[in-house]
Design brief:
Elements (H helix, E strand, L loop, with lengths): L1 E7 L11 E5 L7 H11 L5 H18 L6 E3 L3 E9 L11 H7 L1 H5 L2 E10 L1 H10 L2 E9 L8 H15 L4 H8 L3 H13 L5 E4 L6 E4 L6
Parallel strand pairs: 1-6
Antiparallel strand pairs: 1-2, 3-4, 4-5, 7-8
Helix pairs in contact: 6-7, 7-8
Length: 220
């Protein structure tokens, strides 16, 4: 049996209407080796090496075919497709003048587009089978209401720059604590700051090594 809580969406996402949704509580992440172990349980005599080979081959197919505009369907699992966005580590597409685009052509116009993620649409039969086995228990009668940040955009930006001035860089935790936001809200807020060319803030590194710094003059 899995547990869930009821959460309320922020008002700015629902045009002021109260919208409540169930959110599953996740207690662990099953790493690669654990997933292989689980698969061997259901796959009979198939070896760990063969399971890894299948994963590696599928990963190679995704890397080579999806960037060419192809979606991938796996029966009983679902459909994988790419989502695109602008690379916020480089100047915004809007910041490139029309004259520059005319001079350098289509390459300049599109150079900041990158792959932002992979969408997954599950097979309806997979959801049906999972629902036949799944049961969910509500762990609290309270509805979790998102905290509203008490600081304005200008105040949050000032706090970010103060942290960077002090340490030379800023982590997600630094910013979340300083602005009183959850890590997810702080992460979204920082994406907006980096996308804003006037903020003076950029990012370096990826994932757990990601930090935020002030833009150098040659990046502006």
């Amino acid at each position: 049996m899995a547990n869930y809580t009821l959460q309320e969406l922020p008002e700015n996402m629902t045009e002021g209407k109260k919208v409540v949704f169930p959110k599953m509580q996740t207690y662990s992440l099953h790493e690669y080796e654990t997933v292989i172990k689980h698969m061997r349980t259901y796959a009979g005599s198939i070896s760990d090496g063969l399971i890894r080979a299948v994963f590696d081959a599928f990963g190679s197919v995704m890397q080579n075919w999806m960037p060419l505009g192809h979606s991938l369907k796996v029966d009983g699992l679902g459909v994988f497709s790419l989502s695109l966005g602008f690379d916020t580590s480089t100047p915004s597409e809007k910041a490139i003048s029309q004259q520059q685009q005319d001079e350098e052509g289509i390459k300049m116009k599109n150079r900041h587009v990158c792959i932002k993620g992979i969408n997954f649409k599950p097979d309806p039969e997979l959801l049906k089978e999972m629902n036949l086995q799944a049961t969910f228990d509500r762990v609290s009668m309270d509805v979790v209401v998102p905290r509203k940040c008490k600081y304005s955009h200008e105040e949050r930006l000032a706090k970010a720059k103060a942290i960077i001035d002090k340490y030379g860089y800023m982590t997600l935790s630094n910013y979340a604590i300083a602005t009183g936001q959850s890590r997810s809200s702080a992460s979204k807020d920082l994406k907006r700051l980096v996308a804003d060319a006037d903020s003076g803030i950029t990012t370096r590194g990826r994932h757990s090594h990601k930090v935020w710094m002030l833009r150098m003059k040659n990046e502006e």
